[in-house]
């Protein structure tokens, strides 16, 4: 009788451990990205969505540099762009971008000597041409470099380095931001990423998408915008691994089963 009971106790214990293992472990299929791309050396092409340049808003900070044959002539303009790029924001890789030219409430930036230039509602490329035209009245053959300095993307949840990233690049993709954050942790859900986007009418749009297939590469949300927020949800495995009470009870259960099995073995003898 003791032998039969001991056998069933061991079988039940083994089944419990197997169930726990299956519920907490992840398969390779769950963590792979773009798994619908064929595993072959044959080249395949994916058509990306058209990129829509962002327009300049009130409160934006712009990097404006004017280059001429006489560097001293535009030194006062270019000095305003000096920043401390070594200071990360929220764990991000970008610097604090307090310096630069602020777009005021009237949509203007004010450059030394050149004066006020209206850039509201323009793209970076359009604003560059407007600034170049204004600067040409003061400098011979000026070359204008213009960038947006306040493109901020926030990524939260199951990534290696969550935080807010200041990106000095007009064209930023979901893949870029995942790279800035150090990629997913093993517990991050690749199939249910939440994107929250701030709109000009003081509303927030939300959408969920997956990076386990190439559909996102064709989506208009592939390119991120200023103040976008990405949230990476944890998978069930994270709950099991971080549940202190569950792990403690599992240890107590394992200890009780071990003692009970030992007791049965001793009584049998």
Can you offer a commentary on this structure?
By secondary structure, the protein is α+β, with helices and mostly antiparallel strands. The protein folds into three domains: 2-26 and 238-268; 28-50 and 151-234, Outer membrane lipoprotein wza domain like (Outer membrane lipoprotein wza fold like), CATH 3.10.560; 61-148, wza like domain (wza like fold, 2-Layer Sandwich). It contains seven helices and ten strands. The protein has helices at 2-24, 28-31, 75-78, 124-135, 174-180, 236-242, 244-268, and strands at 61-67, 101-102, 108-111, 115-118, 143-148, 152-157, 163-166, 193-198, 204-209, 229-232. The strands form three sheets. The chain has a five-stranded mixed beta sheet with strand order 7-6-10-8-9, with helices on one face. β8 (193-198) and β9 form a beta hairpin. α1 packs antiparallel against α7. The radius of gyration is 29 Å and the shape is elongated. The two termini are 13 Å apart. Mean pLDDT is 80; it is low at 84-97.
